[in-house]
Amino acid sequence: xxxxxxxxxxxxxxxxxxxxxxxxxxxxxxxxx
Length: 33
Prior knowledge:
The chain is mostly helical. It has one helix spanning about 1-30.
């Protein structure tokens, strides 16, 4: 049970960090144009 919760939490943080990267790339693109 606890292990699953930890996995889920780390998964969530990974998803959010990936989303942040995506947003950064998008804003970089906008700055470029």
